Amino acid sequence: MANKPLDSNVQSTLQRGKACLRCRKRKMRCDGQKPACQQCTRAKKSDGCEYDDGKGKTRTQILRETIVKLEHRIRELEDPEYVSPSVTLFDPHFHSRSNSSSSSFGSPESSYLSTSHSPFPSDSSPASPPGSWAQLQGMPSPSPVSFSSDVYFDDQQSPFQPPLELAQMLLDIFAPHSRQCGLEIHMGRLRDSLTLPASEQRHPVLMNAIYLWACFISRPGPLSQHEEHYLRHSLDALPEALRSNDKTIDVIQASCLLSLYFLANGRLLEGSYHASAAASICMQVGLGGRTTLDSQGSPLGGIDSDLKPTMSDLRDGERILAFWQVYNLDRCWSVILRKPWVILDMSDPRHSIYCPWPQDIKDYENGHIDTIDALPTVRSFLSGSVSASSFSVPALRVKASALFASADRLSSSWSAKKMTTSVNEEMRALEHTITLFLSTLIPMDQLDAVLPEERHSLIMAHTLAHCATIYLFRPFALDDAMCFDKSSRASRACISVIKRLSDRDFAFLDPIIGPCWWSVADIIIRDLDTLERSWPLVDHSDLRNELGVLLYAMTSLSTRFPVVAPAVAKVQKRLASQ
Question: To the nearest whole number, what is the mean pLDDT of the chain?
Fold first, then answer.
């Protein structure tokens, strides 16, 4: 029987070396179809289907080659005598990862926020002493970096998303820092979603904001060169995300990440803009309110009223956490930027916060979601009420933000700056709440026993609570001995917190701790000036030593967050004076 001719387009076996890299690795039969074989398509791994036929570079090889080029460029900048290879030879069988090079990092000085464009008022606020953050004039921002986007995308790749391997690597870098950025999200599910169809993934506006932070926290490594790339793509994706009503949570989370990135880099107007945008969207959709039902049991309210937290799944837990992410950002940075809060919490039920206290993401994964209380969440806490669900680490962080902002607002409302009976009562009541809150925190000397992410959140809670005391008593400190003493004690307490920090902790601290430390430095400098004027012959080395501790901490933080750099210069100047 004659052999039946074989169709030229169909072969029973694929020629050796022609299978895709994924099928080769798993020793599976590959049909060699492009852009993705059937094996990868069935496994929903089309983005990871790559061929190494020696005729061209795969996306992975291009990325690795790019990293090598960046490392050579860094070495050139560091060592004038170093000569990088003029020709890069391509080895199609090179699959090892390049080691990240190290380099010294200095705060970029390409652009500064001038005084005329500062969001700060021209005159010092009553709650802002001379030399406070409200008078810092120059804020450094990252230098823009230009490079071709075709290094990262091919014709099959989404214009807003990097290749799968790079996306997974960036998520792995970001994951330990998610709470530092305020983003409470299930990282495991987020990573798994990268292999899902585009319609089932989180919006590129959020993903690119996460990739941006992964590059930012990688300073001074080569990845930091790509900050501008992901920043641009996140901002470009924002208008389309706003048109998608089902991506509102992604927009809110992304806006918070963008805001904090700008603020940490001293780009205060941009940071304030995105923080206000995130808070306004929260208010618009009623994310922090309680669900009101009509006679048919349907929710009433503004746009996307289904975004209000309900008794359901992990996604509802992320909605609760998204609201508190915005709340922390709005309350804390409004104090520093001297601007009004955007998220309202008033006696009017329409403008009150009823969102349940935030819990750990694992609790939501297990189905533990609190019901919405009949009492307003934050205002009940400030009035002395206690909720059993308000002692999770995320909830303690929210309480610290509430105390910090409340102390600033209360002290700013005392326009007469005269210690009246009503002022004294308000001061005592909030001081009592701060003291009770501090008693619920794990002591600093016991934080080594908690998880790293909880440790850094609790460090932030301790710092914000002590700074709340500083803000509360500072307006009367120069005229009232008791206020002077209590603000001084609070500043010393913050120094005690700093002394408990390890060098590793600095890489995981929330950027808001920088402005908090400047408030502490302001009090210590005030005390030092007062004592040197009153008792010039007395040794004040203890205060100078504490200022030195603070300077070391702020200098270490400024290498990560350039917004701290101007404050460091002011402390250095004071220490240098005799």
Answer: 79
Q: Which residue has the higher pLDDT, 397 or 54?
A: 397
How far apart are the C-alpha atoms of 75 and 97, rounded to whole Å? 18
d(CA 283, CA 396): 22
CB 274 within 8 A of CB 570: no
Q: Which region holds residue 520: left if phi is over 0, alpha if psi is between -120 and 50, else beta?
A: alpha
d(CA 249, CA 202): 10
Structure tokens at 246: 């089902």
- Which structure tokens are listed for 252? 């809110």
Location of structure tokens 């808001």: 512
Beta partners for residue 299, in sequence order? 293
Residues 541, 544: Cα–Cα separation, whole Å: 5
- Confidence (pLDDT) at 498: 97
**Per-residue model confidence as pLDDT tens digits over 262-302:** 999 999 999 999 999 999 999 999 888 765 333 333 333 44
Q: Round the CA-based radius of gyration of the chain to a whole number and report it.
A: 27
Q: What is the DSSP letter of 144?
A: P
Does an H or E element contain 300, and which? strand 299-300
- The whole-angstrom distance between residue 471's C-alpha and the CA centroid of its chain comes to 24
Q: What is the DSSP letter of 140?
A: B
Can you tell me the distance from the alpha carbon of 155 to that of 151, in angstroms, rounded to the nearest whole number?
11
Q: How far is the CA of 567 from the CAs of 56, 107, 248, 509, in angstroms?
A: 51, 13, 36, 17
Give the global pTM: 0.72
**Closest by CA position to 358, among listed 330, 303, 316, 302:** 316
CB 420 within 8 A of CB 346: no
- Residue from 212, 211, 260, 272 nearest 513 by CA: 260
Alpha helices in 50-163 (DSSP H): 59-78
Phi and psi (nearest 5°) for 248?
-60, -40
CB 144 within 8 A of CB 163: no
**Residue whose structure tokens are 């806490």:** 381
Structure tokens, 18: 């022609």
The string of DSSP letters for 81-111 reads T----SSPPP-TT--PPPPPP--------S-
d(CA 222, CA 66): 10
Distance CA 236, CA 379 (A): 38
* Distances from the Cα of 425 to the Cα of 421, 429, 431, 435, 484, angstroms: 6, 6, 10, 15, 18
Dist. CA 356–CA 370, nearest whole Å: 6
Domain covering 17-49 in this structure, CATH number:
4.10.240.10
CA dihedral 333, 339, 340, 343 (to 10 degrees): -30
Cis peptide before 220 (omega within 30 of 0): yes
**Dihedral sign, CA of 519, 522, 526, 532?**
positive
Rounded to whole angstroms, what are the CA distances from 293 to 26, 300, 305, 365, 512?
54, 6, 10, 26, 38
Could you state, in order of their start, the residue ranges of all structural domains in the chain? Answer: 17-49, 162-290+310-358+374-387
Distance separating alpha carbons of residues 130 and 529, to the nearest angstrom = 13
Distance between CA atoms of 404 and 410, rounded to whole angstroms? Answer: 10
182 and 256 Cβ atoms separated by less than 8 Å: yes
Alpha-carbon distance 318 to 309, whole Å?
Answer: 9
